[in-house]
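Late entry, evening session. Most of the bench is empty. Finally got around to the prediction I had been postponing all week. Sequence below, unchanged from the version circulated by S.P.
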Amino acid sequence: MDIDAWVWWLIGAVGLGIPLVLTAMPEFGMFAVGAVAAAVVAALGGGIVAQVLVFVIVSVALTAVVRVIAGRQRADRAPVHATGIDALKGRQAVVLERVTGGGGRIKLAGEVWSARAFDPGFSYEPGQQVDVVDIDGATAVVM
């Protein structure tokens, strides 16, 4: 039984499509498309050198194009939103009990927090607006 070259290329394309599905690595899909292009060249009567060249050129070109597009998508991605204590840094709070370098209380994001002044020489009186500089354990550092 003599199988034409284009059939072998299609078998190769299917063989490359299997790991694409199993591993989700898009490179296998690009190689599979290259194999299909080589199968077309073989079906049109192209020699083995032309088939291999088409396979390599199509596979490399697709890989290069997809890498550029993926790089742009990654660069255009919106900045990640801060969560947890990182989201509290930079927010404003209201002093509930006098805040000094030794301690005090503030209302931050609707909750009562213990707080201390960033600069131990400063103090903040009840009702004042302060900015949260850092979170140290369960204590907000404010200025």
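Two things to note before I forget:
Helices lie at 5-23, 26-43, 48-76.
The mean pLDDT is 91.
Will write this up properly tomorrow.
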